Amino acid sequence: MELIVETHNLTQRFGTHLALNQVNLSIPKGAVYGFIGPNGAGKTTTMRILTTLLQPTAGEAFVNGISVRKDPDAVRKMIGFMPDYFGVYESMRVWEYLDFFAHIYGIKQPRRTSLIQELLQLVDLTEKHDSYVMNLSRGMKQRLSLARTMAHDPSLLILDEPASGLDPRARIELRELLRELSRMGKTIMVSSHILSELAEMCSHIGIIERGTLLASGPVEQIMQDLRPHKLIEVQVLERAMPALQMLKQLSTINDVHLANELADDQAGGKLAINFSGTAEESSAILSNLVSQGFRVNHFAERQSDLEEVFLHVTQGVVA
């Protein structure tokens, strides 16, 4: 696995306050990495170090194998940073805003003109080419800022709370844009409090609290590690109590209980199975139910979500 971001015992102090406590972070190339944590957890501090805006107190950070301490100029050429709060030079027109940053990145004419058209098309702002930035909605300004981070074609995008303050439609549009950037091969590191949206687009997550990285890795792996036992939900049309008793005899089942109240043994109902076996053994449970004459109209593993994982590993304490 080739890494684009790697940190070794990254530590940051502000006076007596420990903002980052020996953080060891690994982000593979091509990942969409969701960086999760409460306010004051250390997300923005980590991002500012990776983008060379802040020198760490101790430890080291690398982008594409290049040290952010020793060669910050080379690192800046490979990253596009979109902070939570950013200036947009509201007296400029949209094309002027992008032209200004493209010029700073050293892009010559006539390439800048064609690049601006490509970026506006990418973020769906082509019709706003001549509009003043001050007249754009919050969501449009976010997309314009994202277009600006793409002007020099960076391999890594670092986005700090990009959905902050957006309405539901703008959030959906931003999410689809990030998916498109991922399909283009960009690695994306994104922090957010909107955990349900991160779950839909992230391949990897990191959970940080009080400057300490609590968990990091592929989403599926973290969910599996935090809940080694699976919860299978079963709905039978009748005879739920006999089904319950039969399931209790199976050695692969750790526990089974009714998920709703029953009036009598003939009533149907929901069963919740705590299970730690293989997929084949899970299939065998369903086969057993059917072979014993139970009519099953629902049999599925309940999936964990990011909010559940986040609540499981954090304590809700702000540094």
Automatic annotation (TrEMBL):
<dbReference type="GO" id="GO:0005524">
    <property type="term" value="F:ATP binding"/>
</dbReference>
<keyword id="KW-0067">ATP-binding</keyword>
<dbReference type="Pfam" id="PF00005">
    <property type="entry name" value="ABC_tran"/>
</dbReference>
<keyword id="KW-0547">Nucleotide-binding</keyword>
<dbReference type="InterPro" id="IPR003439">
    <property type="entry name" value="ABC_transporter-like_ATP-bd"/>
</dbReference>
<comment type="similarity">
    <text>Belongs to the ABC transporter superfamily.</text>
</comment>
<feature type="domain" description="ABC transporter">
    <location>
        <begin position="5"/>
        <end position="235"/>
    </location>
</feature>
<dbReference type="InterPro" id="IPR027417">
    <property type="entry name" value="P-loop_NTPase"/>
</dbReference>
<dbReference type="InterPro" id="IPR003593">
    <property type="entry name" value="AAA+_ATPase"/>
</dbReference>
<protein>
    <submittedName>
        <fullName>Multidrug ABC transporter ATP-binding protein YbhF</fullName>
    </submittedName>
</protein>
<keyword id="KW-0813">Transport</keyword>
